[in-house]
Amino acid sequence: MSARQLLLVLIMLAAVLAAGTARAQEQVRFPTAASPPTALQKRMAAMRGEDAKGTPGLMLQGHLRRPRRGNGGDGPFAALVLLYSCQGITGTVEDWADQLAAWGYLTLLVDSYGPRRHAPNCNSYEAIESVDQTFDAIGALKYLRQRKDVDSGQIGLIGWSIGGSKVLSALNQIGVQNLYPDKFAYGIAFYPNCLTASGPFIGPLLMLIGGQDDWTTAARCVSLRDANAGSVHPMDLQIFPDSFHFFDDPDMGPVRYRAEAENREKNPTRGVTWGYNPAARNAAQDTIRQFLERRLREN
Length: 299
What we know:
The chain has about 300 residues and is of the alpha/beta class.
C-alpha cells in the first residue's frame, strides 16, 4: 500500500470514528421538576372542585449517552444523571459521561445553564448559587424513569463542585425529595460543600474530595460523615491527600492559586487553589467503578 493510499484509509477511519462518536450522544429535552402547589392553591382548587396544579418546570436539554453495543444489548440499563460544576459543560465532564457509558451505564448530562442563558462563572457565589440544579436533577430522574431502556430502580446522581453539593441536597432525607415520588437510588459527589445538607440520606452516598481543598474543605465532609455514621446509609468518604478542588480536571492544569474567586472559608473571603492531580483522578475512577458495581450487586 502506497503512502497516499494509507493516508486515505486513515482519513476514512477517522471519519467513521467521528461519526460513531456523534451517534453515541443524543440531545434530549425534558422539564425541570414542577413546583408543587402551595397550601393556598390547594384550598382554592378544592373550592372549585379541581385538582391543584403546580407551576410547570422550565424545559431543559441534556446530552444522553447509551452504552456501547455489546454492553447490555438494548437494556434496560442502570443510569446516571450528571450535574456539572460552575464551569458548565467541559471536556472533563463529557469524558466522565463517556467513561460511565463505556462501563455500561446510560448517562444524562443535564445542561442547567444553556436554557437559562446563564454564563459559567466560578468567581462569584451569587452566580454559582443562582441556578438550583436540584430540581433539574429531579426532572431528569423523572424523564429517565419513563424510558424503556432504563432500569427505573437503578438511577443514580453524580455531580461536581456545586453539582456535587446538589447531589447531597437531592438525597437529603429532609430535603426537597419529599415533594416528589421519584427517588435517586444513590449519589456520587465530587468535592461538594458539605454544609449544604445535614443527612441522613435516602441512599448510599460516595464523596470524593481533596485533602488540601481550600474551597470546599474535607474537614466539613468528615464532620458530615461522622454525624451520619449510625444511619441506614452511612457515607463513603474518600479523601485524596495533596489534592485540591477540580483535582480530576486535566484542563485545570497544574495547581494554581486564583485570587479573584470568592471563598467563604477565608477571611477576607477571596482566593482559592485549583489544580489537576492525575494520580487522584485515576484513583477516583477506580473508586467510583467499585462503588457502582456494589450498587448493582445489591439491587
